Here is the input.
Amino acid sequence: MAPPYKDYYSLESEPFLFRGSIDSALPSMERVIGLELGQAKVAYPFGSFADIPVVHDTVSGQEVVIFFAGDTLSAFSGRGFDERRTVGTTGVFSPVVDGRSLTLAAEYGVILDDQTGSEWNLLGQAVAGELQGKNLEPIVHVNHFWFAWQAFFPDTKIRSADDISG
Here is the structure.
């Protein structure tokens, strides 16, 4: 018997057992980073982070930095390891450490800050360099499917990594 959610990795699929209306601004199965800061509700499609894994933005006057790693495995793909698909995961943080605003970017698969050259991981921890041992303050966010996020927050603004990085 195949798992009932095995098609959740496919953008062409429809949600299993969901009966609500779906905003067609994105494919219903698109994974999004959902943020609710102040009065703002923002969704960032995972698909827009493939080439830009670190993005800075401002939401409700608050600076945020989003880290994206595309190699996380889906729990919905299949029973065996070989059947699983990569879907990605994220971290969202305030880019300020000890009152110092940092500009972070991915270079050759490593997240570095411009100010000190310190290396950061997906959890917002400095793992090497001058700031080693420091942590970025996490910002509460969710990784959801578009249909689920927009069902609760229909007035969501969609932002893509391309829109805010260029």
